[in-house]
Backbone:
């Protein structure tokens, strides 16, 4: 543990406890109100929960580095549970190398090319669900859709794709402490690790897909042989469970706010801002850590080198210092500037694809569904980092 | 606080006071300038905060990272030699008084 100044406001709850993860918003408020920087002694860490400080930490990658891990573990002192990601858990210049290639593969230009396929799949899926009428919005929609379109785009085999859900669940649990959530997730994933790494190999990736394009960057000399499978792994760990929950949360927000659904149904062009607002309101990725690379000051608070700093993205997204009526879900709000994709050089490199998936599901629903009726409360899937749903019973009424 | 000028495609001019270290994009979005969309919020991921730097600004801008160079391939309006993403241009004393022109579309 590193020493933390005595006058930093202390919060004594556990942000990785079941109670916190089930309903984080009042805890977020308490942290924001306690001060710009708070101390969580249970883990010996500092945390920021206001928009200004979350933004400041994420945009100062020299001081608040990622190469020491973006979870609770400090890689300068502890061995990482898996070889560190070459993009998420890296600083420039390694980060820039990886980001340049991934940013090109996932660019707005690419998205124009994959859009027709993603659109057709959204329509086919929602037509099938409309025939059924009563569905589990998580299993049958928010998991089914990203599990189809994204691995298709990466060029992954059809078989065993559900392994990506368990893998993503474990990776995001692993940013937290070694609690029961992580222990259970790691147990589930252990037998699947070989499948993941095997499918990062070029021979198992469809030529021309996102995965294959990473290997093309090896041919052009931008990446090394060893880097390529590691970056394919980044697609598999970061590209599914995030959008699964982005879509699931959006579905729940809209089912739970029929007035907002009516606006979207009347004007499907609101699909994109509606998805953006759901990301703000119920952020898939709730938190990330950074590590102080040197003794510094954050909002007037002295921070010792090697201190872990937890950024509450989801809390920044509901900070009344930044947003008007932050606890109101309003799809006509300009939600730009939310922290759900992070910010700065580590801002989600797949966000253009994520927005495409969200927009297409919401616009297709808006056109074909008149009303989304919740058939019961959603069941949460607790995760140390993700705001996730296990099931969401719904009835779709056709337009 | 140093100023920069943003010039709309129709010639209208908006002058912004920008704190040193703040990106031109952030300043424009905070001031509600139309023509800067900045969907990704400044992560160099969406190419919707595209600007054309005026001649006088060119030599004074921060150097371009490879990520910005790639993303400029995705702009909705034509890429020109003076194209930049305004999220990647942080304000400095050197840029005081300079102008950026906004493209027709983002």
Residues:
């Amino acid at each position: 543990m590193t020493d933390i100044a005595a006058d930093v406001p202390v919060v004594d709850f556990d942000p990785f406890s079941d109670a916190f993860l089930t309903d984080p918003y009042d805890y977020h408020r308490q942290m924001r109100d306690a001060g710009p920087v708070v101390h969580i002694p249970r883990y010996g860490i500092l945390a920021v929960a206001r928009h200004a400080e979350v933004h400041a930490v994420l945009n100062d990658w020299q001081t608040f580095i990622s190469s020491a891990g973006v979870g609770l573990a400090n890689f300068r002192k502890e061995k990482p549970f898996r070889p560190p990601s070459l993009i998420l858990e890296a600083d420039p210049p390694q980060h820039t190398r990886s980001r340049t290639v991934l940013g090109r593969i996932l660019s707005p230009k690419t998205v124009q090319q994959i859009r027709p396929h993603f659109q057709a799949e959204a329509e086919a899926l929602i037509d099938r669900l409309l025939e059924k009428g009563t569905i589990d919005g998580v299993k049958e929609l928010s998991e089914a859709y990203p599990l189809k379109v994204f691995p298709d785009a990466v060029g992954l085999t059809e078989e065993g794709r559900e392994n990506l859900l368990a893998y993503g669940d474990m990776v995001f649990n692993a940013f937290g402490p070694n609690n029961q959530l992580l222990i259970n997730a790691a147990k589930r994933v252990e037998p699947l690790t070989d499948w993941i790494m095997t499918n990062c190999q070029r021979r198992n990736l469809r030529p021309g897909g996102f995965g294959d394009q990473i290997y093309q960057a090896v041919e052009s000399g931008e990446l090394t042989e060893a880097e390529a499978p590691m970056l394919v792994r980044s697609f598999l760990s970061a590209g599914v469970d995030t959008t699964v929950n982005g879509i699931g949360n959006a579905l729940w927000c809209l089912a739970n706010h029929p007035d907002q659904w009516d606006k979207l149904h009347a004007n499907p062009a609101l699909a994109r801002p509606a998805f953006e607002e759901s990301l703000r309101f119920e952020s898939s990725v709730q938190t990330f850590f950074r590590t102080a690379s040197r003794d510094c000051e954050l909002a007037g608070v002295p921070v010792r080198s090697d201190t872990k700093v937890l950024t509450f993205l989801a809390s920044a997204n509901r900070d009344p210092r930044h947003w008007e009526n932050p606890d109101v879900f309003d799809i006509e709000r300009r939600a730009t500037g939310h922290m759900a994709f992070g910010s700065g050089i580590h801002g989600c490199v797949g966000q253009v694809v994520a927005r495409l998936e969200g927009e297409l599901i919401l616009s297709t629903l808006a056109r074909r569904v008149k009303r989304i009726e919740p058939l019961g409360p959603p069941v949460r899937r607790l995760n140390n980092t993700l705001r996730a749903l296990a099931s969401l019973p719904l009835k779709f009424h056709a337009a | 606080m140093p100023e920069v000028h943003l010039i709309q495609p129709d010639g209208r001019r908006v002058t912004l006071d920008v704190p040193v270290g703040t990106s031109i994009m952030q300043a424009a979005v905070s001031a509600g300038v139309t023509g800067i969309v900045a969907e990704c919020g400044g992560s160099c991921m969406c190419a919707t905060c595209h600007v054309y730097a005026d001649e006088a600004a060119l030599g004074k801008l921060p150097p371009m990272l490879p990520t910005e160079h790639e993303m400029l391939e995705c702009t909705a309006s034509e890429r020109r030699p003076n194209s930049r993403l305004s999220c990647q241009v942080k304000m400095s004393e050197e840029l005081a008084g300079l102008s950026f022109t906004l493209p027709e579309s983002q």
Summary: The two ends of chain A are 58 Å apart (CA to CA). Residues 108-132 of chain A form the longest helix (25 residues).
